[in-house]
Amino acid sequence: MNSFRKRFLFLLSAVVLLVGIVCVGYPQTGQSKEKTKQEFDLILHDGTIIDGTGSKRYTADVGISDGYIQSIGNLDGAFGKTEINVSGKIVSPGFIDMHSHADTEVLATAKSSLTQGVTTELIGPDGWGPVDLSYMSELEEKGLAINIGSYIGFNSVWEEVVGYDDRRATAEEIVDMQSLIEEALEKGAWGISAGLFYAPGNYAKIQEVIDVVSVAGKWRTNFPNHIRNENNHVLEATAETIEIGESAGVVPVITHMKVMGPSNWGKSLETIKLIQDANKRGTFAAADQYPYLASQTGLIAIVPQWIQDGGHEEMLKRFADPAMRGQIEEEIHETIQSRVSDAGDVYFPTKQTTLADIAAEQGVSPGEATMQILEKEGSIRTIYFFGHQEDFERILKNPTTAIASDGGATVSSSTHPRRYGTQPRVLGNLVRVEGLLSLEEAVQKMSGLPANIIGMVDRGFIAEGMIADITVFDANTVTDKATFDNPKQYAEGIEHVIINGQFAIKNSEPTDVQAGKALKRSYDMPSRPISLNEAHKVSVKGHLVNENHGGAKKGPKINIMVDQQADQTQSKAKLQIIDKDNNFQINLDELGILQTYKGWASFTGTVKLKKNETMPILVTIDEKDPFTGKETIRVKIGENYQYSGTLKGELKVD
Predict the structure, then answer these.
(1) CA quadruple 162, 167, 168, 170: dihedral positive or negative?
(2) Boundaries of each Amidohydrolase domain copy (predicted)?
(3) What is the distance between the alpha carbons of residues 111 and 649, in angstroms, rounded to a whole number?
(4) Which string of b and e fits 19-36 if b means at least 16 CB within 10 Å?
(5) Residue 26: is its pLDDT beyond 90?
(6) Which of 99, 105, 482, 566 supports an S-S bond with 404, CB 3.0-4.6 Å?
(7) What Å distances lie between residue 511 and 494, 495, 505, 577, CA to CA?
(8) Which of 348-362, 558-572, 609-623 has the highest mean pLDDT?
(9) Are strands 286-289 and 401-403 parallel, antiparallel or unpaired?
(10) How far apart are CA 210 and CA 511, in angstroms?
(11) Beta-carbon count within 10 A of 188 CB
(12) Quick one: which of 95, 91, 186, 88 has its CA closest to 132?
């Protein structure tokens, strides 16, 4: 037996009790666990816990050690190196921003994100970002104030292989793009982002996108897409994204979902139905949304795609052609009218003026003014006031819509206010003032739901065994301050932010601690819906065999039986691992709510060791490993002990 396995089995031999809860639901009100004489790095006393599942809030203490949530319940008899009373405050999972355009040089401090309660940002959205994901390690080495993860961008991959010309990809180029995507997934990418609205990704036909993305099917990941058209053809573009996801075997996500332009208002009824219909037929489809009726992108967004063919220089040549300039001017006008009411709704935050104002000052049309700005200044940041409240609310309330900023960490004073106010705006304006969501729904849309969409298994919920990414806020005062004219105003009401067990915000002030990590995803972390209010059963019986460590000899005996009834917060369960040869045994009698999805299951908890020490445990179960085709069990205890084995026996996840 190799030394690693000996260390693992020695650790397990010290286990006397596994006291755990599943990562999506600590037993609610009426549950109290006396855990005397325990010691923790930090105890949050008497907080009102909203756990990220959407379940009803409850009051409990939270004990944190070694970067993990070790205990939830009554910890009056325990000792904490630091103890804080958070009575009357909401203790929630740290918010996960699954669509961030963070300025990477700001990630070392990330005050704009931390003051919103954000603990993790996913960068590389809309199809962009470096093709080589080693840049994530470089960012981590420089120091991170928050956690980050990265998508692999379809547009970046297309540009790397095919270039910026509007042409078809060859069979060899398809294979090359597939290789780049698979390499990125192997390095921990959290999905394949796309911006089929933007050149050169826009040049790819639907079958080409499917062919390239299909290599990710066995990774069980997601496909967030800035759809080809958010205005006149929003229905077709939404349907296309869902078709790509279904055909390629990945979760389609309509990113920053919206309906643009007065002539299209009301179409959210149909776009949401497309998502709902996909879910009804067994395809998990989702969306994300920011809480503003204005978008931000470049000025080039109102220039038709054919004019951009070949890149910026080719576009400028077309502008310079007198025979084409008039046609381009008219097509820009048509695009403006499809996105917003008029050029007065096209706002430049760096200039604090509108396209209509600039056109009037210069005595030209908005289309001509657009070309002149692009010729002299490039595609400057532009805010488009596009939306309609009824569409916004309809998208927001759809159960598979998460909240994401489309912003991210910044220090800019001329940007969209969402980069300083997204999450507090939801909690303050949408929940407290307008009553569009309950607090439980809002927290779920900013924590548990985005965690599940991108595939996280150890973040996004308040539960034992979960990594301690936690946000504590005052529900009565939390609010955004940023405006379109003065965006650089930090949010208020976020009192504490804990990242990997360390304070990033304490008493509403940044601590300058760089506790963030560059997070990586693996194929056993599937993108999935939240499995709540459903009946589930998991049964495992047999022996574990690790063919890479110790040959094919029978390993520990394992027996798992979990019966989760619908509308219950706690499962009837039994878990037993016995290794007679190495004299250890684990027994478990109860679990909380179980996470399952298409033959996969996962739960977290804590392992209690001698001398009353505890360590977090994460168990994942696969009926059919997508790479080996075998029944597989994976166990992780703390940061240093892992065991992955093929099951010789019977396994079933319902």
Answers:
(1) negative
(2) 354-503
(3) 51
(4) bbbbbbbbbbeebebebe
(5) no
(6) 99
(7) 14, 12, 6, 43
(8) 348-362
(9) parallel
(10) 45
(11) 17
(12) 186
328 vs 368: CA distance, rounded Å: 9
Q: Are 544 and 647 in contact (CB under 8 A)?
A: yes
Residue 225 near residue 248, CB atoms below 8 Å: no
> If you search the block for the tokens 């504490």, which residue do you land on?
496
What pLDDT, in 10s, does the model give residues 93-148? 999 999 999 999 999 999 999 999 999 999 999 999 999 999 999 999 999 999 99
Kindly state the tokens that stand for 443: 């927290």
Pair of tokens at residue 15? 């286990």
Domain boundaries, the chain: 93-293+386-510, 297-385, 536-653
One-character DSSP codes across 592-646: EPPEEETTEEEEEEEEE-GGG-EEEEEEEEESS-TTT-S-EEEEEETTTEEEEEE
Rounded distance between C-alpha atoms, residue 120 and residue 149, angstroms: 8
Sign of CA pseudo-dihedral 451, 128, 209, 180 = negative
**Residue whose entry in the numeric block shows the structure tokens 């916004």:** 392
Beta bridge partners, 52, equal none
User: Which residue shows structure tokens 């993305």?
Assistant: 213
Q: How confident is the model at residue 643 (pLDDT cuts 50, 70, 90)?
A: confident
Q: The tokens of 566 are what? A: 């619908």
C-alpha–C-alpha distance, residues 43 and 65, integer Å: 9
What separation in angstroms does the CA of 92 have from each of 122, 196, 236, 470, 514?
A: 19, 35, 38, 6, 21
* DSSP-derived pairing of the beta strands 251-254 and 286-289: parallel
Torsion-angle region of 120 (φ positive above 0: left; ψ -120 to 50: alpha; else: beta): beta
What are 493-497's contacts with CB under 8 Å, separation 24+?
A: 493/424, 493/427, 493/428, 494/114, 494/115, 494/116, 494/117, 494/424, 495/86, 495/89, 496/84, 496/86, 496/470, 496/471, 496/472, 497/94, 497/114, 497/117, 497/118, 497/119, 497/470, 497/471, 497/472
- Give Dmax over CA atoms of the chain in angstroms: 88
Beta-bridged to residue 47, according to DSSP, are 60
Q: Which of these, 578, 589, 576, 569, lies nearest to 19 by C-alpha position?
A: 589
Cα-based torsion angle of the residue sequence 568, 569, 571, 575 in order, rounded to the nearest 10 degrees: 170
Q: Which amino acid is present at 596?
A: T
Count CB-CB contacts under 10 A for residue 500. Answer: 21
How far is the C-alpha of 430 from the C-alpha of 477, rounded, in Å?
13
Contact (Cβ atoms closer than 8 angstroms) between residue 63 and residue 439: no
Q: Which residue has the tokens 């405050």?
A: 89
pLDDT at 88: 98
- Give the angle 469-124-408 at the CA atoms, nearest 5°: 55
The answer to whether the Cα torsion of 389, 391, 392, 393 is positive or negative is positive
Between 543 and 285, the higher pLDDT residue: 285
Residue 124: partners with Cβ closer than 8 Å, 6 or more residues away: 130, 150, 151, 152, 153, 193
Is the pLDDT score of 608 beyond 80? Answer: no
The β-bridge partners of 617 are 605, 637
Q: Which of 19, 73, 64, 9 is nearest to 46 (CA)?
A: 73
pTM for the complete prediction?
Answer: 0.89
